[in-house]
Design goal:
This is Major facilitator superfamily (MFS) profile domain-containing protein. The protein has about 300 residues and is mainly α. The protein is built from 16 helices and no strands. About 70% of the residues lie in helices and about 0% in strands. Helix 6 packs parallel to helix 9.
Length: about 300
């Protein structure tokens, strides 16, 4: 939401002042269509809430949202890092990656694809329902992963790795958008750290899984089964995201109207919106003038 919606501690307002404040928000940000305004203005229950209610709501958000964020990010890392484990079960010899720097290049080419895919993914996630965008991304990267089983040359692997990077690029910024729509600023770092920490857990578990898959004796090389199984699991998980992920407080299922109201109203202190599909050029210029943006840019 825009600056007009900055949070005044709700307990310091009288009931009548709160009602008038919410009526006023009906006319705010209509140009850019922030949908949180409609939730605040349309709610006709008690406008104040207790700290206990808010803590209970945050725990519910954690249960329903963080589980999906963590598993998805874990799958992303598992799929991305599979190359090094598949190499132990015949991939390097089957695709002639032992020649020169072919193996190193097959690992490195993932990251140009990641850079290539990041911006379109961010734009799609901001413009369209994020649960559908992430569903499509995860579905396509699962299909891309399964296609690796059909690769017969190092050039084919280069193409697969590039597009895998382009598809997986949307997960991290997408999850940042989701976290920014559900949590206060002081709550966000912990949640991002939780789903990012899945890389460590997956690093422990994935070798055990792939060791077992690598001992499958069938008509295909063991490393091909590893990619087929991982891709199939990723595709199935895409449908779980589509059906179960609460995308934002406005459209979340299995939340009561009061829970939605509290989830939206408590976000006013962030001085940001919950869901807005309009591009604001003034925000772009503000970002480009921010020294912290450029520090992060060059560090990355």
């Amino acid at each position: 939401m825009d600056d007009d919606l900055r949070q005044v501690p709700i307990k310091e307002k009288s009931q009548s002042e709160q009602v008038e404040y919410l009526k006023k928000t009906i006319t705010l940000d209509t140009l850019h269509g922030d949908e949180a305004v409609k939730v605040l203005a349309g709610y006709d229950g008690d406008l104040a809430w207790s700290a206990i209610e808010e803590k209970k709501l945050v725990r519910k958000i954690d249960r329903r949202l963080l589980t999906i964020l963590c598993i998805t990010y874990g799958l992303q890392y598992y799929d991305k890092a599979m190359l090094s484990q598949a190499a132990l079960f015949g991939l390097r010899t089957d695709l002639e990656l032992t020649v020169g720097i072919r193996y190193s290049l097959s690992a490195a080419i993932f990251y140009p694809g990641f850079i290539f895919g990041a911006y379109p993914a961010i734009m799609l996630a901001q413009r369209y329902p994020i649960e559908r965008v992430i569903f499509a991304i995860v579905l396509l990267w699962g299909a891309c992963l399964m296609c690796t089983a059909g690769v017969t040359s190092h050039n084919g692997l280069y193409v697969q790795r590039f597009f895998l990077g382009a598809l997986e690029a949307g997960v991290s910024p997408g999850w940042m958008l989701v976290v920014g729509g559900w949590y206060k600023k002081q709550e966000q770092a912990l949640r991002m750290g939780i789903w990012y920490s899945m890389t460590g857990y997956v690093s422990i578990v994935s070798p055990l899984i792939n060791y077992g898959l690598g001992h499958i004796h069938g008509s295909l090389s063991p490393w091909r089964y590893m990619y087929l199984v991982a891709g199939a699991i990723t595709i199935l998980w895409a449908f779980v995201i589509l059906l179960l992920m609460p995308p934002d407080p406005i459209r979340a299922k299995r939340f009561t109207e009061r829970e939605k109201y509290i989830a939206v109203a408590r976000m006013r202190e962030n001085n940001s919106g919950v869901r807005n599909t309009h591009f604001k050029i003034e925000q772009l210029w503000e970002t480009l003038r921010d020294l912290r943006f450029w520090l992060c840019f060059f560090m990355a």
